[in-house]
Each structure stands twice: as structure tokens, then as C-alpha cells.
Amino acid sequence: METTTNTKSPVLLIAIVIYALAIIAANLTVAVFGPSITPINAFVLIGLDLALRDWLHLRLKTWQMGCLIFGTGLITYVLNQDAGRIAFASSASFVIAAVVDWQVFRTIKGSWLKRSNVSNTAGAAVDSLLFPTIAFDGLMPEIVALQFVAKTVGGAIWAWTLAYVQKTDLRPQ
Q1: pTM of the predicted model, to two decimals?
Q2: Of the four, 20, 68, 79, 138, which is 20 to 30 A from 12 by CA?
Q3: What is the residue extent of each domain of the chain?
Q4: All residues at 6 or more sequence positions from 137 whose CB lies less than 8 Å from its CB, including other chains
């Protein structure tokens, strides 16, 4: 079930900007510092995006989420053409991870927090495998494992934070 709210809501617009800035910052720092920065990005920035994406899923239409995901990759590329492969890897892995995340989020029963954490784990697994493999042209098991743990833990912390800040209904639905 897709729920939408007023797309002119200041809170929604701020969430969209934060989501986009976090992805763009993650992409650009990876382009500059390489794979060694990815576990830190995964914990702080991608963990935020995983949780925020679930929040946005309930407020935006599917095509709007798709545009937001692809748009962040395009903006990354415009800001730094050397980050083209990173932007492509980010967009591709995030689209696939977003589909997995959304399907799990829609299927799981329970509170928003439970659904967010379970779907974030699935999305983190997909993104952690695909992103470094595409971005750096090969499987990097240590980076994949570190990213997965960082995204899962970071996503859980951000989900709890969003639930607390927004007073999200934590009861089963």
C-alpha cells in the first residue's frame, strides 16, 4: 500500500534534502577517498538513508522515490565527473536495494520500526554486495562485510531516532 502526504510539507521537503545530501556526500567522499571510507559512510550516511527511505516510502509515490534515487546519482556526476563510476554504482545498487527494501517493508507486519529494521537489513545486504563490486570493479569481501554491519547498525540507530523524533506509531499495524 502506497501512502502519500502533502509533498509541500516542510518536514517532507527537509527529509528529501537530507536524503539527497547524504547520498551525494557519500558518493563524493568515496570518489575522493576510495573503498576505505565506505564503512564509515555506510554507518553514518547510508544508515540514515536506509531509515529515511522507509519514512519517505510512506510519503512519496514510487516514481518520486525513483527520481530521487536517480537524481542523486546525476547530481554526484555533475559535481564531480571523476565520480561517474561511483554515481552509477550508487544509483544501480540503491535502485535494486530500494526495490528489495520496499518489497520487504510492504510484506512485513508489525510496527514501522520493526518493518524498517527488517527491510533495512535486506536492503543493506543487497547494497553492500553490489555497490563496491560495481564501483571498484571486483568483489571485496572485507568491504562488503564491513559495509553490511555498518549499514545495518547505522540503519537501526537512525530508524530508532526517526521513530523517536517523529513519534512514529511503534505499535503493530
Answers
A1: 0.78
A2: 79
A3: 10-166
A4: none
